[in-house]
Amino acid sequence: MRNIASPRRSANVAIVGVDKKGMGLLRECLRAEAVLPPSSLAFDEAHEAVRRQRPNVVIISFNGDVGQAVRLGAELQADNPSMTLVAYADASDNERIKAAMRGGFREFVVLPDDSELLRRAVHDAAYAPVAADEDRGTVITICGTRGGSGCTGLAVNLAAELCPVHRVCVIDLDFSMGDVATLLDLQPKRHIGDVLRELDRLDERVLAGSMAVHTSKMHVLAQPHEISERPSAVKGEDILRLLQTCADSYQFILIDGGCHLDEATLTSLSVSDLVFLVCTPDVPSVKNAFRRLQLFERLGVEQDSIRLIINKYDKKTAHLSIKDIEEKLNLKVAAVVDLDDKTLNQAVNEGRLVRDVNKRSPAVAAYSNMVTLITEREPFVEQKEQKKSSALSWLFN
Fold it and tell me: Please, which pLDDT band fits residue 376 given cuts at 50, 70 and 90?
């Protein structure tokens, strides 16, 4: 999992008491250095949230009650002495600076003047010696460019390929229309909403009891049958706590993020080791892929962690060739899943894996090849030469 002992060395940062303007300055300053949360924590919820999140760095606002900020810093350092504390303020003030230094804060920064100072402090925290964390699982977020891209089908069929030799779970993070359980013909007794409401007691045992188990040995944390959780009510810090527990329990965690970008999905993207961007070979989908890549850059998702997957590809009817898509997105295609409507439709309607419907389907071969994208972290590129005139030139020029 990226934000804990990550080999990519991006610091995991918690932010407390900072307003929207300050959050904008922090994002601009730390875009390349850190995993930043979608929003700032309130002081009264910060201690418990930071305890669960276990960040490298905590940035605390000194624009308001200085005593409150100092007390919070002391409480956090008592829990984790290696944590780096940074005081943030709109303007320099000698008394506030002294209070921060006496309280154990490493730096007192005013942005944008102290941008380099803040970047150095966060960079040093990311590279500080940490305990070995080799047993933590790999988190992969699968997100689509639009509805019908095929994220859910890719997530469950790829997970099934991993299951014979790995401990794997699939998390349905599509709070709008998640249907992982439907595609696998599962009737879960518990769902993700139950887990999020019981975070205070969440551990590996509780998590295991909330999973539905497929015949392939894939574990699934599903959405409820009825839409009961509003995406806007799901907090990023709660999703982070859930993913941390999953990373302690499973070798691979595949997240079906759907095509909607809410706080849950943005949080999973920020901590994922790999991001699978699923695109179909048509102009609207590729245009949305371009927008997604711009967003990933703003979120600090490194390009070498992104795998572009072209789904439902038919070289005879595709509006865009693989070469067209690569040129317009400036990103190599990592894998191609050939279109097989007959098999895919049967699998969806019967709640079965594609390989169980037709093991000779070209999609099955693609899923099998994609396993190396996860286990070896090396792109798999299936070249399909079918050059067409670019229909996207007017979008990107």
Answer: confident
pLDDT in tens, 75-95: 998 888 889 999 999 999 999
Query: Terminus-to-terminus CA distance in the chain, angstroms?
Result: 37
Both structure tokens of 122: 């966060």
Q: Band of the pLDDT at 380, cuts 50, 70, 90?
A: very low
Task: Point out which residues pair with 86 in neighbouring strands.
Answer: 59, 107
The one-letter amino acid code at 175 reads: F
Kindly report the number of other CB atoms within 10 A of residue 120's CB atom: 13
Count Cα neighbours of 295 within 13 Å in the Cβ-side half-sphere. 19
Hey, which bits of 104-198 come out as E strands?
Answer: 107-110, 138-144, 168-172
58 vs 179: CA distance, rounded Å: 37
pLDDT digits (tens, 9 = 90+) for 345-374: 999 999 999 999 999 999 999 999 999 999
- CATH class of the domain at 138-396: alpha beta
Q: Measure the CA–CA gap between 173 and 142, rounded to whole angstroms.
A: 10
pTM for this predicted structure: 0.66
Nearest to 274 by CA among 126, 174, 380, 132: 380
Query: For residue 30, what are its two tokens?
Result: 């730390």
Give me the pLDDT at residue 190, please. Answer: 93
User: Residue 312: which of 293, 285, 291 has the closest Cα?
Assistant: 285
Could you list the beta-strand ranges (E) of the chain: 11-16, 34-35, 57-61, 84-89, 107-110, 138-144, 168-172, 212-213, 219-221, 252-258, 274-279, 306-313, 333-338
Which residues touch 223 (CB under 8 Å, ≥6 apart)? 172, 174, 175, 178, 179, 180, 181, 191, 192, 193, 229
Q: Would you kindly state where each structural domain of the chain is located, as residue ranges? A: 11-126, 138-396
Cα-based angle 183, 184, 185 (whole degrees, multiple of 5): 95
pLDDT in tens, 240-288: 889 988 998 899 999 999 888 888 898 899 889 999 999 999 999 999 9
Question: What distance in Å separates the CA atoms of residue 83 and residue 45, rounded to the nearest whole number?
Answer: 18
Assess whether the region 11-126 and the region 138-396 belong to the same CATH fold: yes
User: Class assignment of domain 11-126?
Assistant: alpha beta
For residues 40-69, give the mean pLDDT: 91
